[in-house]
Amino acid sequence: MPIRVRLDRLLLQRRMSLTELADRVGVTIANLSILKTGKARAVRFSTLAALCRELDCQPGDLMVFEPGPADEDDETAEE
User: Fold this and answer.
1) Helix, strand or coil for residue 79?
2) Largest alpha-carbon pair distance within the chain?
3) Which residues, 6+ apart, have CB-to-CB distance to 65 below 8 Å?
4) How far apart are CA 27 and CA 79, in angstroms?
5) Is 55 left (phi over 0), alpha (psi -120 to 50) or beta?
6) Which class does domain 3-78 fall in?
7) Closest Cα to residue 75, out of 21, 14, 10, 2?
8) Mean pLDDT of 33-42
9) Contact status, residue 49 vs residue 27, Cβ threshold 8 Å
10) Does residue 30 surpass a pLDDT of 80?
11) How far apart are CA 20 and CA 25, in angstroms?
12) DSSP for 9-37?
């Protein structure tokens, strides 16, 4: 997946635990953990907005697009 989640970095910069963020956002720790480890397949805009609000960041601070050779093969397979 070429989308990378930078939640760990933001939590460290904000000196906030995953538990504290989960409480503030209203999302389970398990779901935030899935997002943090890059295993999430989707994120609701309302969750993304709540994360940005609580972490005082922009969506681009949370997620980045990093394409690689394997990702190009995936795109060809879908066509």
Assistant:
1) coil
2) 44
3) 2, 3, 4
4) 35
5) alpha
6) mainly alpha
7) 2
8) 93
9) no
10) yes
11) 9
12) HHHHHHT--HHHHHHHHT--HHHHHHHHT
pTM strictly above 0.90: no
The per-residue pLDDT for 67 is 87
pLDDT tens by residue, 45-79:
999 999 999 999 999 999 999 888 765 555 555 55
DSSP, collapsed to helix, strand or coil, labels residue 4 as strand
pLDDT (0 to 100) of residue 75: 52
CB 7 within 8 A of CB 42: no
Q: Are strands 63-65 and 3-5 parallel, antiparallel or unpaired?
A: antiparallel
Cα(71)–Cα(78) distance, rounded to whole angstroms?
11
Cα–chain center distance at 52: 10
